[in-house]
Design goal:
Blueprint lengths: L65 H17 L4 H10 L3 H12 L2 H9 L10 H5 L6 H12 L15 H12 L1 H8 L5 H15 L2 H9 L6 H21 L16 H8 L8 H19 L2
Helix pairs in contact: 1-2, 3-7, 6-8, 9-10, 9-11
Pfam families: Coq4 (PF05019)
Membrane topology: Peripheral membrane protein
Function: Lyase that catalyzes the C1-decarboxylation of 4-hydroxy-3-methoxy-5-(all-trans-polyprenyl)benzoic acid into 2-methoxy-6-(all-trans-polyprenyl)phenol during ubiquinone biosynthesis.
Length: 302
Amino acid sequence: MLARCTCVPSQLALARPLVPLASSSPRTSSLASRRTHSTSSRPVPRQEDLPTTPDSLYPGHVPINAFQRTLLTLGSAVMGIVDTHRHDMIATLSETSSPLASLRRLQAHLRSTPSGRALLRTRPRLSSSTVSLPSLAALPKGTLGHSYAAWLARNKVSPDTRDPVRYVPDDELAYVMQRYRESHDLYHVLLGFGVSLPAELVVKWFEASNFGLPVAVLSGVVGPLRMEASERKRLWRTYGPWALRAGARAQCLIGVPWEQEWETPIDELRARWGVERPPVGFKAWRDEGRRLEALRREADGV
């Protein structure tokens, strides 16, 4: 049985995130359809295939000191904002910005449940080499497996594009970070959101409240700056309070044994884990945005 993450302060769910609403950027076309997803654009090396050094704690581990960690955090944050396609920078930021205490609290949560202890013991991976996507696609509609395979195909996303962990100075904590990273697409599936910028932001708000990792908080704060002010306000009003509340109320998803639930109806899993459905389907929100944009253009005589 899962439990709520003890790592997330309860007041996070009640606090208004630092999403700037008043400032505006030069008007461009709507960003609702722009794709932005925290994966590489091509398959990346498997963790176990990465080189090691005498100082490495696991394959691919790069030992760094506090000064190097600070430089990497600042540099990856800047590069991630300047070039949103540098998903390696987002991956680096997620590792260097996460205090070990945050990862240890997630680790403690995993150790507190039988399914979590099994995950830490067996360390399953989510990739095309460990999960048969054609088999999942053949499962009945409405199951987690079918929904996941359909989401990957619809959004042209591969499970093989999650960057390996390099800078977490502990073997088991590195797996905790990798599990969080590889499960990210399943959070999209569970919540019902695609990979556009607004959809990604809503999932990040949920993750910030459910896991409390700094990278999710930072993404949820900085990401909206790339949107027009009106769209940013509309996204927050529709989904912001719900995402924070839903993330705080849901059971901690870091310990979900996805591999054992492929044949389970996704609605049953939402009910079991306490995941609230969004107040408005994302397609309806996007269509309303297009309608408002058309009205604006008509009023402007465009």
